[in-house]
Amino acid sequence: AVSRVQQRLSPATMTDALQRKQNKDDESDNIFIEDPKTKQRHKIKVHDGVILASDWKKIRSGSLQVYDPGFTVTASARSSISFIDGTRGILRYRGYPIETLAEKASFLEVAYLLIFGELPGPSEKDRWERNVMTHTYVHEDLKFHMRTFRYNAHPMGIVISSISALSTFYPEQNPALQGGDQVYRDPRRQIKQIFRILGKLPTIAARAYRHRIGRPYVEPRSDLTYTENFLYMMDCLSDGSFRPHPQLAKALDTLFILHAEHELNCSTAAMRHLVSSGVDVYTALAGAAGALYGPSHGGACEAVLRMLQEIGSVDNISSFLADVKAKKRRLMGFGHRVYHQYDPRAKIVREIADEVFTIVGRDPLIDVAVALERAALSDEYFKKRNLYPNVDFYSGVIYRSMGFPTDMFPVLFMIPRAAGWLAHWVEFLADPHKKIVRPRQVYMGEDERDFPPLERRQDIKRFATYRKSNASRRRLAKL
């Protein structure tokens, strides 16, 4: 298995693939740009729908830059991990439709597919799952570290800090301590970190949950499936024979598949950005998780749930949508930077909801969600703006029905997304064209200025709005 992975990840293999793509692109069209300032006409080749920055730099000797806040039309990587067609509502992992994988595969199979490019064979699948589950235990010192957090610490904060701390337990894999990023050139060392991360994340997440509610930690069980073990560590009390409901574990497994990978989103781009510096994979993963923690990314699911709770009843939907049109309220869970029609993952999540409700009961918010979707999709205002439900719209209702508190939602997003982050880590390390990420800026500040002496400077009063706490004012009132 290692030798096959080594061949797949080698720079030579990557270079051959890029060369085949280049030969195909030689037949592509060109763009001609005439510069009125220099009177020069530049031919820029279009490669697979992309113009190369190296060609663009030839214009005005590289002094002409492209300003693209948010990288809306900028491609920073060639990747073969996932494919999205937002116009047609298509998402594929390594060529497999997301609908097929959600129906027929397990999360660990999909994780293998994302990282190594192919689905595992029968014996390799067994070895892969056994190795991941063998690495579910964490060091006793990490347990002590997690217990030092405040009782009401947010689970995501605990998880991010614990992932970062993992790098200190494995100094042999840290490029900063081993003389550079050549430490990861050995595929065996890469795979070892993959086993550790995928295995330990559910354990860390379950302990962050139990820390919040004051329960003792539960050790993992390698005889359970990936999601069964996660639910076991969250819910087991004194009954050692406790086993989660298999359909709930399967529903969570499917949700993990849907969240595993989604091209160069904010957190995945952060992962690649950090990896480009040569930092160890645990620190990079913690940084990516930090990006996911943001309310515009991994926190969107929680925002949807709060919106549905505020609406409260089907009777209030019309007035809510009127407020949205008047820009008084925000419609959460609709629309996407990439998709211009129904998010393919949202359809699957809605189907999962019915299965979950047959076991734990129907959440009343699902009626509000269904009615809101129906009303929005029949309204020309939202249709013209391509505002369709995304994966976050129904996920929050399902997680709430399964008993997860809202502050665990980004953690539930992060566990599966780690598989996608690791896939991009492996792909980046094997890329012969990899460089440290260093975007340019458009400077808008002052020109060169003389340094004024202190007596000639004016007070700007930047802290005029700062208000000291009552405790600080009491302390400062001393004699």
Element order, helices and strands?
HHEEEHEEEHHHHHHHHHHHHHHHHHH
The rounded Rg comes to 25 Å
Poorly predicted regions are none
Mean pLDDT reading: 88
Proportion in β-strands: 5-15%
Query: What is the overall number of helices?
Result: 21
Order of adjacent strands in the largest pleated sheet: 1-2-3
Helix content: 40-55%
The major sheet is characterized as: 3 strands, antiparallel
What characteristic shape results from the CA principal axes? globular
**Structural class estimated from helices and strands:** mainly alpha
Terminal residue distance: 74 Å
The count of β-strands is 6
Walk me through the topology.
Elements: H1 2-9, H2 11-25, E1 30-35, E2 40-47, E3 50-51, H3 53-56, E4 82-85, E5 90-93, E6 96-97, H4 98-104, H5 107-116, H6 122-134, H7 140-147, H8 155-166, H9 187-213, H10 226-235, H11 246-259, H12 266-275, H13 281-292, H14 300-311, H15 317-325, H16 344-360, H17 365-377, H18 380-384, H19 391-401, H20 409-430, H21 470-476
Q: Which short descriptors sum up this protein?
A:
21 helices, 479 residues, single chain, 3-stranded antiparallel beta sheet, mainly alpha
Folded structure, characterized:
This protein is mainly α and 479 residues long. Helix content is 51%, strand content 5%. α11 runs antiparallel to α16 (344-360) and α16 packs parallel to α19. The radius of gyration is 25 Å and the shape is globular. The N and C termini lie far apart (74 Å). The mean pLDDT is 88.
Short description:
With 479 residues, this protein is mainly alpha-helical. Helix content is 51%, strand content 5%.
